[in-house]
Amino acid sequence: TGYGQEELVGQCARLLYPDDEEFRAVGEEKYRQIGVAGTGAVETVWLRKDGSFMDVYLASTPLDPTDLSKGVTFTALDITARKRIEGQLRTSLTEKEVLLKEVHHRVKNNLQIISTLLELQSELIRDAKDRELVQGSRNRIHSMSLLHQKLYHSKSFAYVDVRGYLEELTNHLLASTVADPSLIRLTIAAQDVFLSMDEMIPCGLIVNELVANALKHAFPGNCPGHITVSCSQGNGVVVLTVADDGIGLPADLEIANAETLGLQLVTMLARQLRGRLVIVEAVVGTTISVSFPVSVSGATAQLPGDYHPGDWRTGRTGGEA
Predict the structure, then answer these.
(1) Residue 119 included in any domain
(2) Among 240, 244, 242, which Cα is nearest to 217's?
(3) DSSP letter at 27?
(4) Is residue 195 part of a domain?
(5) Domain span at residue 60?
(6) Higher pLDDT pick, 207 / 108
(7) CB–CB of 313/274 below 8 Å?
(8) How confident is the model at residue 281 (pLDDT cuts 50, 70, 90)?
(9) What is the pLDDT of residue 273?
(10) 164 in a domain, yes or no?
């Protein structure tokens, strides 16, 4: 503090505080804590002899817990340097958060520019099949652009709310793929599931391909239909499922050996996630499920004993959707 011992002995502690309000607040808080726990500890600001401020951690212990009138001992620790470092870290973190938000914003904008260029190009294409291929590429770009948009508006740059993302993604697919969106009912089931960006990019593309495939092929002749997209997490494994009540997949289709780009992407992305890909055929419709180990802080979580990443099951299995 800059004061000598002889200058402080017999003086009121108010001498060390910058104002009456701080002196009163510290006194009230330390005695409140002593009354509850027997001791007190507060962080405050003291005024040095030269007029500069210092941050202090102040611990207090009564000489007799049953009679505070006998006095209280105080131990003060100078934490000015620690507080300065904490302030620098907060400033650095804020700057990095602003920079990261800007990165997500710019990536999203660049992806939207690419999508717009593809849209302009598609207007010059006369063949309907070729235009459909271009729209498929635009939808894939949108699935990634939407993720960056979600991260830009999120309080956390590490994880994405799966439900909100899937709702926007599937609604966009419905509007851009089906002539009459009112014929298709979409259900999203992903309560309280949050995934990292590294997991969400392949997951978003998988959902994009499977939902787009269902919208194009599961309900021929403008038939009404229902598509359910669900995502659950438990025991270190995420299960992502797309189910429809349409006409089902062709009997001879092997998704792992499919020739279409969309289904090839699903297979590749499932492998990227170290996942297990399963097709379940029911009496009506098709259910395709991808399960993969969830990542925790960049490392794979502890997995159940019966889970083997990369254990592919792409054939059909019985069961209900």
Answers:
(1) no
(2) 244
(3) H
(4) yes
(5) 5-78
(6) 207
(7) no
(8) low
(9) 92
(10) no
Under a CB-based contact definition with an 8 Å cutoff, are residues 178 and 172 in contact? no
Residues 6+ apart with CB under 8 A from 184: 174, 178, 215, 219, 224, 225, 226, 227
Report d(CA 184, CA 180) in Å as an integer: 8
Query: Which tokens sit at 44?
Result: 């405050």
Residue 293, domain CATH: 3.30.565.10
Boundary of a domain, candidates 54, 78, 102: 78
In this predicted structure, the answer to whether residue 186 has a pLDDT above a threshold of 90 is yes
CATH number of the CATH domain containing 49: 3.30.450.20
Domain end point (choices 30, 56, 78): 78
Beta carbons within 8 Å of 75's beta carbon, 6+ residues apart: 58, 59, 60, 61
User: How many other CB atoms are there within 10 angstroms of residue 242's CB atom?
Assistant: 24
Q: What is the mean pLDDT of the chain?
A: 83
Amino acid residing at 95: E
Is residue 94 in some structural domain?
A: no
Q: Do both 192 and 310 map to the same domain?
A: yes
Count CB neighbours of 302 within 10 A. 9
State how far the Cα of 86 lies from the Cα of 81, in Å rounded to an integer. Answer: 9
Using one digit for the tens of pLDDT, what is the confidence trace for 223-252?
999 999 999 998 889 999 999 999 887 766
